[in-house]
Amino acid sequence: MEWETVIGLEVHAQLKTRSKIFSASPTAYGAAPNTQANVVDAAFPGVLPVLNGEVVRMAARFGLAIGATVHTRSVFARKNYFYPDLPKGYQISQYEHPIVERGRLVITTPAGEKTIGITRAHLEEDAGKSLHEDMDGFTGIDLNRAGTPLLEIVSEPDMRSATEAVAYLKTLHTLVRYLDICDGNMQEGSFRCDANVSVRPFGQARFGTRAELKNINSFRFVERAIDYEVRRQIALLSAGGQVRQETRLYDSARDETRSMRSKEEANDYRYFPDPDLPALVLTEAFLAEVKDAMPELPDAKRRRLGAEYGLSAYDAGVLTASRELAQYYEDAVAAAGVDPKLVANWVTGELAARLNEDGLDITNSRVMAPALAGLLRRIADGTVSGKAAKDVFEAMWAGEGDADAVIAARGLRQISDDFAIEEVVRQVIAANPKQLAQYRSGEEKVFTFFVGQTMKASRGKANPAKVNEILKRLLAP
Amino acid sequence: MTLTITKIAENLAAGRCSSRELVDDVLARIKTHAVLNAFITLDEEAARRHAEAADRARRAGGAGILAGVPIAHKDIFCTAGVKTTCASRMLADFVPPYDATVVRKMKAAGCIMVGKTNMDEFAMGSSNETSHFGPVRNPWDRDRVPGGSSGGSAAAVAGRLVPAATGTDTGGSIRQPAALCGITGLKPSYGRVSRYGLVAFASSLDQAGPMAQTAEDCAHLLAAMAGFDEHDATSLDVPVPDYAAQLGGDLKGLRIGVVAEHFADGVEPKVAEALREALREYERQGARLVDVSLPNSAHAVPCYYVLAPAEASSNLARYDGVRYGFRAPEYQDIEDMYKKTRSQGFGPEVKRRIMVGTYALSAGYYDAYYVKALRLRRLIADDFARAFERCDILAGPVSPSTAFPLGAKNTDPVSMYLNDIFTIPINLAGLPALSLPAGFAGGLPVGLQLVGRYLDEARLLNAAHRFQQATDWHTRVPAGF
Lengths: 477, 481
Description:
Helix content of chain B: 25-40%
Order of helices and strands of chain B: HHEHEHEHEHEEHEHEHHHHEHHEEH
CATH architecture of chain B: Alpha-Beta Complex
Oligomer: heterodimer
Strand content of chain A: 15-25%
Number of strands of chain B: 11
CATH topology of chain B: Amidase signature (AS) enzymes
Number of strands of chain A: 16
Radius of gyration of chain B: 21 Å
């Protein structure tokens, strides 16, 4: 039987606020345990939550960016369950009335473009962490993360393969960073994903029973976890078995999913509106303000760069992968005043390779846009050859100064003086009478020998175009 | 110490006594009458120190009316460095690291806290018998309850141990003990006073307020307590009137709404008689009685006993033994720790309400109970809005009876809950209401309840003040005090 995979994703994006969603504690990652938790975070008797206005702005920005309805009235609810790292015994979330509903995201896969529906996005608080290591048999509780603002983004079950799921995640990941609402750091858990996966025979309208996969913290693991789960479910169904509705944990070390709890064991969360928080009411003026402050979105930027700078779809895609990279590119183009394609080649080529090698981000590149522009100008005006430019770039990366300084210090200036080059060419021809005879008898491939000899004699500094031109003239019978 | 705050302030200003002397006197009286069990914790050393500082400050001038006045806080308000137990084993040794906003504001106004008063556990009760620290006794008859849940505060003021105390009122917890102990107690409009630092029972109903001998004292105390608080999203950002300055206007033409049934079935005849006499006093002062009807209030008690426990079941989930408070000494695993900690840490009434509330919020029951109760709550509030189109304030009983004997209603939760039949609707509607002494029945105090429009505390306080100008019920002191 042919099987169709159905995937819906739930993403928890940590909002990039300085303070927590319901308290004034800072949200910085990696502090010593419980140093970023106050009485509100620790749920001391008598404390109350007060909503951080910045998270509302961020959620609204996201809603508008995905063409969703941003509700002018939404309600915070309590999700009740006991867990040691959940200090209040409930999580404040949004349930019946989320802030964002009915949006969409366009993804690109090798098969083309596809629109994925986004059911809803709601605001909620994160829980703390249980610590088991170095605790001498006890369990420690770190509440630094408790109360960190999250936007939970729930997709429709619109994806039909792990590839589509990854494309959706990457598109969403790029979007939230463009919107400057999430740093997207998956290792630190700022962008987490749960996947609802089911399979059904092709042509069947009804969805199969789904499993929810938790704990997938990289794009690669999303693909692997879904692939594993699809294989597991197909094998189960093919053997006449049934898929149980359950939560499964992805174990990246063993590359498999394991049952965590079944639907029967699921909690009754006893949701009800949080009486400590009035309904969240947004004015049309506020939404207009958010709309006005909306940055250019990835899709629009990609199209604009392609058209404005004559870039290939591929280059435009790579250069708009992050807002910072696109900014770097546009800054370099503006500063260099050279062919934008040359700039694109360098940014996606040398620069990208070097950043990758050193594990650096574009924002902390060792060669910033104006400096790269300086080098590209010297390529365009013939001061350095493309080959020598790579050495100049390496030197700039190593901190030896700007392009002009490196070119001067290393004597890499290209020789473009016709008389000087002609002098070298005459010497080379005079020193190689045998090859000259061969050339003149019609063996044209000897020409490259003369080019090589000339470049060697000029220690690589002769302008290759001029060398060609002068050689052709002087070798002619 | 039979003086009102107003009188004490005069004496302090005139140099007839010092704050330090007042505090010493208060502490001595609390100890003399320890049998009342009105206090859980005394903060003697700090109180004396603060009194001396207040005396020094007064000599420098500019002291407000509450400066140097000894008061007590119900043990539900968090007090930095001073044990806050909520009368529960769960928090028997809990010392908060912060002050409740009410505590902070009253401190800023110069009040000196001498200690924390006894109460029903987590404010759940109408007799002060659910306290982990034992029941409070009514100064008018030590074999009777003081009412609850702010029973310690009411008994302390009635016994003239302190001139004033704070209370909280979720379904009548300020007004009912004020009535049963013969003092004046005000539950402000929901949102008028910050709930930050008030240990939550039912968040949408809880409201803190003053308990004192007179409406005038309550006016001063409310002015100090009330106001917007950035730590409480449900507190109102509207200016606080000078309540005391608005006292004194006559009551000519005041329309007082009366619900006829509230003087009939279920109310002790002698209580009803005292209340009718109180209404006649209002008529003598020029007020006019208007018949009004609150048909949906008949369902207020069941409505309340869905909503309040539902919120409580969630509010009390934090007492899990993980971070603070009581933890069972022995347990097998985390699940067992939760079960034993909460089984041993909470008393029976608290557990009953947690179970009721958990049930009401459960899948499959939520619509039938919680959602239906919310709808009913709206209907009850609408009734009040309609009534207030025809009158300016409402008047009626606080409680169907006077103080009942200790143990009388312990075994029957429903009869205990019905004590609050006249007070609960007001919390559901979020309105301000006060209880003032309006006579005696069988030697025990009777309270008259006045209910106002939203944020109309000033009118309520004035109506109570004018009554107290013409009567002396509020000046009566129990024998032996």
